Amino acid sequence: MRGEFKEIVAFAPPASTTGAIGWLRQNLLSSPFNVLMTIFSAYLILKLVPPVLDWAVFSADFIGKDQSACTSGGACWVFIGARLDLFIYGFYPFDQYWRVNWMFALLAFTFVPQFFDAFPYKKLFGLIALIVVPVVAYVLLLGGSFGLQPVDTNKWGGLMLTLVLAYVGIVAALPIGVILALGRQSKMPVIRTICICFIELWRGVPLISVLFMASVMLPLFLPEGMNFNKLLRALIGIVMFQSAYMAEVVRGGLQAIPRGQSEAASALGLSYWKSMGLVVLPQALKLVIPGIVNTFIALFKDTTLVLIIGLLDILASVQSAIVDPAWRQVSTEGYVFAAFSFWVFCFGISRYSQALERKLHTGHKR
Amino acid sequence: MSDTATNPASNNGLAVEIKEMHKWYGDFHVLKDINLAVEQGERIVICGPSGSGKSTMIRCINRLEEHQQGQILVQGIELTDDVKKIDEIRREVGMCFQHFNLFPHLTVLENCTLAPIWVRKTPKALAEENAMKYLERVKIPEQAAKFPGQLSGGQQQRVAIARSLCMNPKIMLFDEPTSALDPEMIKEVLDVMVELAEDGMTMLCVTHEMGFAKRVANRVIFMDAGQIVEENEPNEFFNNPQNDRTKLFLSQILAH
Ligand SMILES: Nc1ncnc2c1ncn2[C@@H]1O[C@H](COP(=O)(O)OP(=O)(O)OP(=O)(O)O)[C@@H](O)[C@H]1O
Ligand SMILES: [Mg+2]
Q: Of the candidates A215, A213, A210, A241, which has an alpha carbon nearest to the alpha carbon of residue A228?
């Protein structure tokens, strides 16, 4: 066994394990089942991709004003272009579009920097996005002050309405959810019971029935003159519903933090709120980022349910445009557009959360 | 060290005074008739078999646990439900845990400055300067920018000690500070604790490190089944134990 020691100079691995061929062997052809799957997938790709591409791009019509431009048999994207105003602004008055555009710009201005690690004022911009933007957007969109012409919320619609619903839902549901989760763990029985009842009540009801109740039943119980706005009612319904879910997600995180953390904080003299805010919650929330983002994405998509109470979000506005007799057979294009719009935002949220997780990962838990 | 053992720093009132204290977990009578007076600057080592209530007793001193009967006074302030008093006492009492309980999402320096900044309202720069002073004292200033998870157990426990010291406590509680550590790291933590003792800190220390007890303690307390069974100055305690249970316990821990 004990031959003379000879140093080995590093040499390259066998060719069959590297390069394109090695990759193919390892990933696509490693077993008979894998080979079968590879062939099947290749078949599917060859069968499906060309016709879809052909429909969506090569024989699609992009330029024109109305149905007459759609002659080539592919997708009629002209329809989307022609009705884009409706899809984005709903029935917001045309000469006031700039207000909505400002809101979009504000959102982009505060959110896009969050994607760049090197940007130095991320926290400040984040705070602006969470606190200032909602207030400014409220004043800007609703009007009636600062010499802005009032625009009734009945006229709000399309992407703008979807964003308003989702944004308010997200910004409000997280803090309320955190409070509920803390309340559920409170030592005070009254607070704990209230929080548990609230969470279980809202979690046990489908969102669609919450919205129905908010729009149909609530007015029955309210006194005659007190008929507050449909959008506001839908918003409250969504926020209550989602904060109950958020509370459970956050509770999962809170339970994963060892008791020693809050004990150490207490022993150092930090009060309950400081110990929660500075020690426990930062760790708990970080732990449940995937769950929080999941809830956000669900919320974003659930906003489409407001169409059943007559609010015209992006999906509802697409639907209303599809039935327009001036256009024939554009439902596929309409739904693809709506789906794509949602996908862009949800994918954005998802990517952001992954970046955030990576950044917050101090990677040395014990 | 023997002179300090018989001559604790002259006091203006007791540091900790526990009178006829009882505690229950549900129906389980975990602490029974605890009486203990700790003078300023005194160093007390508490030992006893597992489950005897050592942790519970010292955790009552900064109200991590509540007692149900009797009295606890810390620096002359009685512990009651009054949150203000509890806060006041916690500012005077530092604590180190068996599992360190450092905050993993903060750097070592941030761990040390968190409480001074948020509880004592110390300006950040001053708090950091102060924290570096204590990190130097526990001999790890070079780790200030790291996260706790990047340190060894012994280093983490020293950070935990520094973190407590940053609040300028008058009393330090230790709950088995070395029992989660590998043998080679125990010494570095004990060295820091010995230094602290030599500087006159009032210390209550649950530990089975008998060498440490002999070296710095003024008194050793032996607990069993929720009661203080025996207390004596270290030499007497180890060489001439009175109670049978103490003898049994000592024979067990000195045997291996
Ligand atoms: N939260 C609790 N609820 C109920 N019983 C508890 C609780 N904490 C501790 N006990 C019990 O109280 C007794 C004393 O516990 P304590 O932790 O004070 O013991 P200890 O002397 O510190 O032991 P060890 O050396 O193992 O740390 C044990 O029997 C334990 O099971
Ligand atoms: Mg213990």
A: A215
3-state percent helix, strand, coil for chain A, nearest multiple of 5? 75, 0, 25
* ipTM for the assembly: 0.89
Is A134 exposed, middle or buried (CB count within 10 Å of its CB: 0-12, 13-18, 19+)? middle
What do you get for the CA distance between the two ends of chain B, in Å?
Answer: 27
pLDDT digits (tens, 9 = 90+) for A11-20: 887 776 677 7
How far apart CA B212 and CA B232 sit, in angstroms, is 15
- What is the Cα Rg of chain A in Å? 27
How far apart CA A122 and CA A117 sit, in angstroms, is: 9
Higher pLDDT, A13 or A266: A266
Residue A134 CA to residue A107 CA, distance in Å, equals 9
Handedness of CA B62, B67, B72, B77 (dihedral sign): positive
pLDDT confidence bin for B8, thresholds 50/70/90: very low
pLDDT tens track for B77-108: 999 988 889 999 999 999 999 999 999 999 99
Q: Can you give the pLDDT at residue B36?
A: 93
Residue B84: closest C-alpha in chain A: A271
pTM: 0.83
Q: Is the pLDDT of residue B59 over 80?
A: yes
**Number of cross-chain residue pairs from A and B with Cβ atoms under 8 Å apart:** 74
- Are B175 and B95 in contact by the 8 Å Cβ rule? The answer is yes
Q: Which helix or strand (DSSP H or E) is residue B35 part of?
A: strand B28-39
* Nearest in space to B41 (alpha carbons), one of B199, B158, B160, B210: B199
Instruction: Give the number of other CB atoms < 10 A from CB of residue B206.
Output: 23
| CB spacing of A268 vs B105 below 8 angstroms | no
Single-letter amino acid code for the residue at A99: R
Cα separation, A102 vs A107, in Å, equals 9
Four-CA torsion B248, B249, B250, B251, nearest 10 degrees: 50
Chain A CB contacts of B115 below 8 Å:
268-270
- From residue A125, alpha-carbon distances to A121, A129, A132, A189, A326 in Å are 6, 6, 10, 39, 45
Q: How far is ligand 1, taken at its centre, from the CA of residue B255, in Å?
A: 25
Tell me the three state secondary structure of residue B71: strand
Which pairing describes strands B14-25 and B202-206: parallel, antiparallel, or unpaired? unpaired
Amino acid at B53: G
Domains of chain A, by residue range, sit at 15-58, 78-92+151-360
**Residue-level length of chain B:** 256
Task: Please state the CATH superfamily assignment of the domain spanning residues A78-92+151-360 in this structure.
Answer: MetI-like (1.10.3720.10)
CB contact under 8 A, A279 and B103: yes
- In this structure, the number of other CB atoms found within 10 A of the CB of residue B69 comes to 12
Is B197 within 8 Å of B43 (Cβ atoms)? Answer: yes
Ligand 2 centre distance from Cα of residue A269 (Å): 21
What's the one-letter identity of residue A246?
M
In the reported structure, the alpha carbon of residue B161 is separated from the centroid of ligand 2 by a whole-number distance in angstroms of: 18
Phi and psi, residue B222, nearest 5°: -110, 125
User: Which of B97, B105, B149 lies closest to A282 in CB terms?
Assistant: B105
Q: Do B115 and A268 touch (CB under 8 A)?
A: yes
Put simply, the answer to whether B64 touches A266 (Cβ < 8 Å) is yes
